[in-house]
Amino acid sequence: MTAPLVSIVVVSYNASESIIETLDSIKNQTYSPLELIIADDCSQDDTAIKCKEWLTLNQERFVRSKLIVNEENKGISANFNIGIRASTGEWIKIFGDDILLPDAIEKNIAFANKNGCNMVVSRAKWISNETKEVLTILPEDNYKFPVSSKEQFLAHIQNKLVAPSTTWFYKRELYDKLGGIDERYRLSDDIPFAFKLLESGERFSYLPQVTVLYRITYTSISVNSKSSGKQKQHFFKSRSAVYYELHAPALKKHKLWRSLLHYNLEWYFYKKKIYSRDDSFARYFYGAFFTVLKALRIFL
To answer: Of the four, 21, 32, 76, 108, which is 20 to 30 A from 234 by CA?
Structure first.
């Protein structure tokens, strides 16, 4: 039986300091055959140059490789679509500037073949990009992953489904069936795609093993207090659009009123925290309420 071609699609943007480590982790995979597509979203540093030089030295490792450099910044969702549509593999592994463990693809293929699934999600080890310290592993050991598509969908719209997108591994026919990644949400590729996946009746199949090291860096908009107000506002607008256009209507449809109320309050305080950047007291006041509400979500 011929091993299926796996396309690894890497999206990059100003990742000069980390991209080579990412590409080396792909080259060192125990699985073959592999196709590598790199889609650079108009980086302002030398990321694209480093990718080009690396591909020149390592292109023989892959059945096919290609570097795409966008002439203008298109956002992560559009950039993923550009990379995926340029690929040809039966299976797709989308990736940022994180690190694949050496047997990640091999484990995903073996699991998918054994269980006959279209979408695999596994565990990710979150590490500090600066200190390399392990911050957490998600899903956690005691997390009971929902089995059915309906259970996963209801957990997803309540923000209780722990399915790290950096570990996703899926069939091309699934991507085509779902119409690709929704480009209306420029900075939110994963949440809308999971929504479409689960709403269609498909589901995640859970491989309870760590396959990815996920970098947490000070440049991350969603986790870092040093990000500019403008960056956080763009991120908020993208994520809030996902909530109000997808999740809120679904919560109403399924009469999950407590989750709906909690979500509305959470977004309200998150917005106040972001837009109060010129008032330290207000920022920390709203930030504290947001943190408490987020922590209480488990009880809803």
So the answer is: 21
Domain extents for the chain? 6-216, 229-299
Q: What is the pLDDT along the chain (300 residues), one digit of tens a residue?
A: 799 999 999 999 999 999 999 999 999 999 999 999 999 999 999 999 999 999 999 999 999 999 999 999 999 999 999 999 999 999 999 999 999 999 999 999 999 999 999 999 999 999 998 888 999 999 999 999 999 999 999 999 998 999 999 999 999 999 999 999 999 999 899 999 999 999 999 999 999 999 999 998 754 434 444 444 566 667 778 888 898 899 999 999 999 988 888 777 777 766 766 666 555 666 666 667 667 766 665 444
- 10 Å Cβ neighbour count for 213? 21
Going by the DSSP 8-state scheme, the letter that residue 129 receives in this structure is T
Give φ, ψ of 10 to 5 degrees.
-105, 125
Q: What is the third-level CATH fold of 6-216?
A: Spore Coat Polysaccharide Biosynthesis Protein SpsA; Chain A (3.90.550)
Q: Which helix (H) or strand (E) holds 165?
A: none
- The DSSP bridge pattern shows strands 119-128 and 64-69 to be unpaired
Phi and psi at 43, nearest 5°, equal -60, 145
Give the position of tokens 């719209």. Answer: 157
